[in-house]
Amino acid sequence: MTSQYQFAFWNLENLFDVEDAPPERRGDKVKRAIGKDIQGWTKALLARKVTQLASIICQMNGGRGPDLLGVCEVENEYVMELLVRNLASLERTYAIAHHDTPDRRGIDVGFIYDSGLFTAEERFNHFVMRRTATRDLLQVNFRTSKGRLLVVIGNHWPSRSGGEEASTVYRAIAGETLAYFHERILEVKGSGTPVLAMGDFNDEPFDPSLADYALSTRSRQKVVNARIPRLLNLMWRITGEHLGTHYFDNFPNVLDQFLANRNLVKKDEPIRTLPDSVEVVRLPEMVSPGDYPKPVPFGGMGKPVNENGFSDHFPIVVTLVEQD
Fold first, then answer.
1. Long-range contacts of range 105-108, CB-CB < 8 Å, 24 or more positions apart?
2. How many helices (H) and strands (E) does the chain have?
3. Under 8 Å CB-to-CB from 229, ≥6 apart: which residues?
4. 300: DSSP letter
5. Residue 252 · residue 242 · CB < 8 Å
6. Residue 294, SS3?
7. How far apart are the C-alpha atoms of 300 and 283, rounded to whole Å?
8. Are 168 and 162 in contact (CB under 8 A)?
9. For residue 102, which of 66, 78, 128, 139 has the smallest C-alpha distance?
10. What is d(CA 181, CA 224) in angstroms, rounded to the nearest whole number?
11. Which pLDDT does position 129 carry in this prediction?
12. 80: Cβ contacts below 8 Å, ≥ 6 apart
């Protein structure tokens, strides 16, 4: 019997702890970095934002919720635990894989996963260095309930703040970091190891950071036949449909992506992605009613708050299948 899983990723737009978070949840360095932006971020506002996010997550996967959800822009494990509590109606045994990153603003990457389907055996943080901040790639080696290894890498690459061109070198470094550890995983865990990268890459599928440095492509055959490990970027179809996961100046950008290695795209592999299953989740309440169908953000952190908003990114989903 074939099992089917829905994997999702969502940039949760500054899911920060409350303004007076205790020192064990927010260190002095992060407190100084976020400064006055956190003022007014009350327990009530945090609870409302989490409720809004959970209302969307609970509608994914036909109302069952995703089997694995990657997230970014979360401050700490505490806010992830709040989110999981708000998913209780799904009656899932959700667990959390998270690691505090040295990022200047304290925003992390993490995974929420059904522990009845997956076990997180190992986790690693691969650091991407820059002068003004440090972000990491979170690698978790999952074991499926059928006993197979599946490596998932969560990404949140350096932003375009300060200008796309000026910041492009940092995303190139992130892409090189992803490509390096993809190759290392295959060396250490075996050449047949399936690897799925997901995240907010802050670049589009055609940008050099993804195409030249992360070694991702739209060509399945290139990935299957490559002598050096490549990744199939599953978002090219979405790009061609002029849909965005994020909007800047009312232009759609596909910044949130899934990248699958050849062990997830070759025919007859025990675990495979279904490329045609990739979707941008755009429920009616999440989409701006104006001329441009952009996400309705929640705001906060120095921006106006809309308590009926969600995030400035849309989630993305993809289906994986596993054979007995």
1. 105/30, 105/33, 105/34, 105/133, 106/26, 106/27, 106/29, 106/30, 106/33, 106/34, 106/75, 106/76, 107/14, 107/72, 107/73, 107/74, 107/75, 107/156, 108/72, 108/74, 108/75, 108/76, 108/138
2. 8, 15
3. 179, 182, 183, 186, 215, 261, 262
4. B
5. yes
6. coil
7. 22
8. no
9. 128
10. 18
11. 66
12. 71, 74, 96, 98, 110, 112
d(CA 233, CA 207): 12
What are the CA-CA distances from residue 305 to residues 111, 282, 312, 314, 322 (Å)?
26, 20, 12, 18, 42
Contact 260, 273 (CB under 8 A): yes
Q: What percent of the chain has pLDDT over 70?
A: 96
Closest CA to 77 of 31, 15, 136, 35: 15
Q: Is the pLDDT of residue 133 over 60?
A: no
| Residues 259, 213 contacting (CB under 8 angstroms) | no
Give the pair of three-digit tokens for residue 280: 């941008």
Q: Is the pLDDT of residue 132 over 70?
A: no
Measured in Å, how far apart are the chain's first and last C-alpha atoms? 6
User: Which of 19-28, 206-215, 311-320 has the weakest average pLDDT?
Assistant: 19-28
Read off the tokens for 170. Answer: 């940092």
Three-class DSSP category at 246: strand
**What domains are there in the chain, each with its CATH number?**
3-322 (3.60.10.10)
- How far, in Å, CA of 185 to CA of 25, rounded? 32
Under 8 Å CB-to-CB from 55, ≥6 apart: which residues? none
Q: What number is the average pLDDT over the span 238-246?
A: 91
Q: Is 130 exposed, middle or buried (0-12, 13-18, 19+ CB in 10 A)?
A: middle
CA distances from 110 to 64, 97, 107, 196 (A): 20, 6, 10, 14
